[in-house]
Amino acid sequence: MKETHEDGPRQVDLAVARLDPWSVMKMTFLLSFALGIILIFASVILWMLLNGMQVFSSIRNFMDTIDGGGGGMNILVDLMRLPRVLGITTVIAVCNCLLLTAFATVSAFLYNVAASLVGGIRLTLIDE
Fold this sequence. Notes:
128 residues; alpha+beta; 3 strands
């Protein structure tokens, strides 16, 4: 650690030699869980905006025009209902939460291995 004592602020050179994988896992899980909740709320708001602008009814009318009223294209329209959209968004949010947590934890382990070989990331901090 190198310290300089001058008239200005104190400057310290440090190295991040190790990341605690358990702390990284907890923090990443918390942040990805919050991101999942934001994703679900954003999809509900977007669905409500599109429904309010009559986009889904326009798509249904267009599909009925193409299909001739036979009902074969209604499968696509059924996918755009709010419960289905919420279900798909929830599955995506849970998968995102699990994958981000696992990826960050494995990355912390890999960083620890690499830091033991090369010494880690050097930081210069200034005390003002």
